[in-house]
Specification:
Helix content is 12%, strand content 38%. By secondary structure, it is mainly β. The strands form 2 sheets. Strands 1-2-3-8-7 form a 5-stranded mixed beta sheet, with no helix packed on it. Strands 4, 5, 6, 9 and 10 form a 5-stranded antiparallel beta sheet that branches. Keywords: Signal.
Length: 181
């Protein structure tokens, strides 16, 4: 008779799998705690005006939206708002996207690619049924403005479903030096 009691005593494969899972969890925790924090710079020649501040107080409808079975194509991109992001020296641009799609890393500020960390959902609009979202507002954090000049924001959205319609928008913002004397 063969002794098979070793299968009940943590075989090597089970121990290795437990170590891999533990390592993965530890890595996830370490990455979530290592978010860099940057201090605002105060040596910018651009003055931040309080009337040009974007606040995060846009009302978001109650979470009773339902998603459509077939997502409609992106039909329009338009400038919704822009200004200094509240509490920072960063410039923000809010784009209204009508339809369902994404920018797939196709957003740029002065030819520098913006990352997914630079974009947040700012709000959405409901359709006639008051349950289905038909348009979305995305806030792009373009970073601090350190020099006077004209800065360009551009992005391209691609529809979620076939025929994968593309819509683009390009906007110029001019910043002038202020005389602090």
């Amino acid at each position: 008779m063969v002794n098979t009691s070793w299968t009940n005593k943590n075989p090597v494969g089970v121990i290795v799998m437990k170590k891999i899972i533990s390592l993965f969890i530890a890595l996830c925790i370490a990455l979530s705690l290592s978010v860099p924090v940057f201090a605002a710079t105060s040596d910018s020649p651009i003055t931040i005006s309080s009337e040009d501040v974007i606040t995060h107080s846009t009302p978001i409808p109650a979470p009773t939206i339902t998603l459509r079975k077939s997502a409609p194509q992106v039909t329009a991109l338009e400038l919704y708002d822009y200004g200094w992001i509240e509490g920072t020296d960063h410039w923000g641009v809010i784009i209204k996207v009508t339809g369902y799609g994404n920018d797939n890393r196709k957003a740029f500020w002065n030819d520098t690619q913006l990352t997914s960390n630079d974009k947040t959902l700012h709000g959405y609009w409901l359709g006639p049924d008051n349950k289905t979202a038909v348009a979305f507002a995305y806030l792009y954090d373009c970073g601090p403005i350190t020099e006077p000049g004209t800065y360009t924001f551009k992005t391209t959205y691609v529809s979620t479903n076939w025929p994968y319609t593309e819509k683009s928008i390009s906007l110029d913002f001019t910043f002038e030096a202020t005389d602090n004397t």
